[in-house]
Design a protein that fits this description.
Length: 148
């Protein structure tokens, strides 16, 4: 992971989520109540600033070292900045529950991507809605974050 200095930048809408996550051993209430959350630390490709972005994840049932995150951006027509930063870096640091550790980052594609995304959409219907919003515009990326 590129060298990170200083405190991370946390955008205003996510500050409360990050604070709740850290105060409650990785659990967040409200809209995200009951969701499995991860905080992803990443470095901006252009700014070189350190960012922290929360995301919902799906654990891999066959590999307890791997979780999947979804670059939905709420069904927006473009991918979130964190997606580009993670893919370019190929690794990141994450917080899951009370643990903080390094992960490798790999994009999941094809039938495997479709299977994983469908599993998440079956668990949380808003993911199906995000996918519907992006039909013909983009395929929502799925990233595998594997503990090093």
């Amino acid at each position: 992971m590129p060298e990170v200095t200083g405190s991370p930048e946390i955008t205003a809408p996510t500050t409360e989520i990050v604070e709740q996550f850290r105060a409650n051993a990785g659990r967040v209430g409200g809209y995200f109540d009951g969701s499995t959350m991860v905080l992803m630390h990443h470095v901006g490709r252009k700014s070189r600033k350190h960012f922290v972005s929360p995301a919902i994840y799906l654990p891999d049932p066959a590999d307890d070292r791997t979780i999947y995150v979804f670059a939905t951006k709420g069904g927006a027509p473009d991918n979130p900045a964190w997606y580009h930063n993670l893919v370019e870096a190929g690794e990141a640091e994450v917080e899951v529950g009370t643990e903080r550790y390094l992960v490798s980052v790999a994009e999941v594609t094809g039938a495997e991507r479709d299977r994983i995304y469908a599993e998440q959409a079956a668990k949380q219907s808003n993911f199906a809605e995000y996918e519907q919003k992006t039909v013909g515009i983009r395929t929502i990326p799925v990233l595998a974050l594997t503990r090093k």
